[in-house]
Amino acid sequence: MTKTPPSYVGQLMLGAARIRAEAEFSNGQRPTAWELNKAAELEGRVRDPLPERYDKKGAGSELVPHGRDGIPLGDFRDTIQKPDYVGAAASRNRLDLAHEAGALELAVDTADTIEAENSLEKMLAHQLAVVHQSSMRLTGQLNRQIERMNVICPDQHHAANAEAARTTNAIARLMQTFQQGVTTLHRLRSGGQQTVTVQHVNVGSGGQAVVAGAVGPGGGQLKRTGGDSEK
Known about the structure:
By secondary structure, the protein is of the alpha+beta class. The protein has 3 domains: 1-47; 49-100, no CATH class; 103-190. The chain has helices at 8-26, 33-46, 85-100, 104-113, 119-148, 157-190; strands spanning 199-203, 209-213, 223-225, 228-230. Strands 1-2-3-4 form a 4-stranded antiparallel β-sheet, with no helix packed on it. A hairpin with a 5-residue loop joins strand 1 (199-203) and strand 2 (209-213). Helix 3 (85-100) packs across helix 4 (104-113) and helix 5 packs antiparallel against helix 6. The longest helix has 34 residues, at 157-190. The radius of gyration is 28 Å and the shape is flat. Mean pLDDT is 72; it is low at 66-80 and 218-231.
């Protein structure tokens, strides 16, 4: 397999890391001031903001190539708040990976639907799209396997049933993974906070019980006196 060469941004980042590593470990000495400055210069170049003329939104909250002016990494429409060149390269990489998975349009639409606000949410959106596509394709494959049982010989039914069962299990795992991804996205956006309800029961004169619930995220409070309830 041919290894994909690093992008221009990747080359700068690797160059900076190589300078630091060689200076620190090759001679057993700490990097010199010149070497540190050179590494910092390379790292700083990939953190430069994109030019203003590329400050436009594109599909899927990603940076997409446009034009033919030959700019290697600035040739993007900006969909992140003032991205640097690392963000631009990462955005292009996400789109390339989604394309290789055969789910580019679905991934972009999913990111748009959830209004992904950062790289992590975009990656989750793309994963959800790929998992959904795979589960749907396997479901179609399962339907064809079931239809095939009507025309195959009876002595082949056992093997066909086993194959259909494996496909069904794979579909179930994919759908469970999709649901876990949605839950992960929700936790990510809510900061992992959970609502805990605390109730206090007070018994007054005459045996009346007053149950007061803690205020939840919706701001409502439940108070029950005797057999009546009031919100």
